[in-house]
Fold these 2 entries.
Entry 1:
Amino acid sequence: MKKASQIISLAAVFVLIVALTAGCCKKNTQTMNVTQESFGMLADSTPVSLYTLTNDKGINMNVTNYGGIITSLMVPDKNGKSEDIVLGYDSLSGYLDKTPYFGAIVGRYGNRIAKGAFRIDGNEFHLPINDGPNHLHGGIQGFDKVVWDAKEFKTDSTVGLVLHYLSKDTEMGYPGNLDVTVTYSLNNNNELRFDYLATTDKPTPVNLTQHSYFNLAGDGDIKEQEMLIKASKYTVVDSLLIPTGELRDVKGTPFDFTAAKPIGKDLEATGGNPIGYDHNFVLDTKGLEEVAIKVTEPKSGRVMEVYTQEPGVQFYSGNFLDGTIKGKGGKVYKQYSGFCLETQHFPDSPNHAAFPNTILRPGEKYKTTTIYKFSK
Ligand code: BGC
């Protein structure tokens, strides 16, 4: 009798162990790889590709060479359950039709240039206006809406994609032929790295960034997700989001993220129309050694850290998403469905001599790196 009950309890322990193992640590079987497939074509028959980058740790990312758009990013949670943590569309047609820069490389100049006008060495330049009276994200056809040359690569520790684009002299009003290379890479430390490189043959403003919309929960809104930004100042903007030139202390304002807090905590208090964060934070960090931003999703346990060589970051809380966009799997993207962390130089820098310089000159190299690191 005693023996039978011992066997039963042993069996129960065994079942419990199996159940726990299955639930808590779903085995990840994928190995590092990069593949290419067709993602359709543009109206003029230009073919577009979709690349899949996988690491050994369960991260799986799709990128297209149209706009360098990250179309999906599957990241495991604390139980090993993977979810797509970026907003976007299922197919190329969505991106061709209408997109608030979902997942894209933004350039030649990320964010706004007031009235699209600036001077370099006394010469005046005028860029197309595409955001009220201002120029936004490189204009009507910025780097997010062109097809990049792409070449995938794989080393022992990394998979990646080298994207290249030659932006011609006067394209979108900008001076100079700008030769741009953006390298995306993914390693087994769960780091997604962006290396930007550009050279020019005439002085020109350059400010490249990545415009992925993240939702670390994979669904719902981002208000409970906790944000830490190591920035003690932000650039004050006017009602059309053009910097006034003032760098204001975040202390005592809704823009204080120097201690982690839920994005939703002071969101209403930011004011603005629409209400929310759409501001450039002046980072206290310098270089890739120190974490600049950390976002934590309490339920899934997903954590995203940002390391950057840029002096600023546009923290955008998806204020303009208004429920009119139906994205992946028919998901309706409402206000605050995702956040962007666009590492960058400050908006409208060509018109603010006191801001860090954004003018690239012949013979110089524009070279900057940002890393998004995921953990759980
Ligand atoms: C800008 C927002 C803009 C959004 C996308 C952000 O970088 O700061 O104002 O609405 O990009 O369209």
Entry 2:
Amino acid sequence: MKAIRVREFGAPEVLRMEEVPDPRPGRGEILVRIRAVGVNPVDTYIRSGQYAINPPLPYTPGSDAAGDVEAVGEGVTSFRAGDRVYIYRSLSGAYAEKALCTEAQVHSLPKNVSYAQGAAIGVPYTTAYRALFHKAQARPAETVLVHGASGGTGIAAVQLARAAGMTIVGTAGTGKGKELVAREGAHHVVDHNAPDAPEQLMKPTGGRGFDVILEMLANKNLGKDLAMLTKFGRVAVIGSRGAVEINPRDIMGRDGAIIGMTSFNISDPDLAGIHAALVAGLENGALRPVVGQELPLQYAARAHQAVMEAGAYGKIVLVP
Ligand code: NAP
């Protein structure tokens, strides 16, 4: 089969298509024929060699994909050949024509969800669910700011919060992104690049502030976020690309909290619960992954450049 391999850490050009042996499923394992692969910012951090956890070289990147079960190993009971599935993590890497997975890494892809949409579920929806419900403990009727709502994780957060009965303010950096965020469920949308963005964000809350802020770019926004929290408000830091100065007094007077998170720390039981909830949301149409761009798998390097550029519009997906 064909797979994208990384033989040295570095610029996007280190992503090269190679011919590799087809994996075979052992006991408890599932072989998935991949129809679409999700590209995440974390794939680029790992490829560059700058991430906290780096895989041994050479490796096949990627954690998110969707396709059909090709074969199952002994002892597998939940899936059989021909089932439509999405995967979150694998044993062999997702940027390939096939991926070897454990049974727990494979989830049913409802009929109403395309393969490309299935490739957009893994990291973004798992992260958004955990940030919103497990970390920030957001509740119905609360007011949530999704700071960076036009990308993969932001769209997921908007849809999840909307389905749970929260009031949502979302942000994007382009007109097209703002339209998307409104269409996917945000009650109010603001351009995060506007010089008066904090004032515009506070307006729909009537000056009360936010119960929950999901932050995609903490190095730019965290200092201002803290001053936009209501009493007992929580900021879940999902993304950050540098350092930031904060005034701790902004959370002291509010009994506020800053909560960090990484999807690598999710426990197996939490993961099983999250994916059960996601599959239910996909089936009933509350969750509708948005695919902004599809590229052939051999253009993985181009996809890695694109995912780091401004002007997000849902997910970038690679097609083997
Ligand atoms: P993405 O699809 O590339 O989207 C990036 C988002 O950041 C877009 O909505 C973009 O908006 C927004 N953004 C740009 N400038 C911003 C600003 N000044 N203020 C607020 N938002 C801004 O990436 P993603 O998958 O949604 O991930 C978002 C971030 O979270 C990334 O840094 C990623 O590494 C991180 N992340 C972390 C975890 C974790 O486990 N902690 C998991 C998933 C993602 P425009 O392009 O419209 O300007």
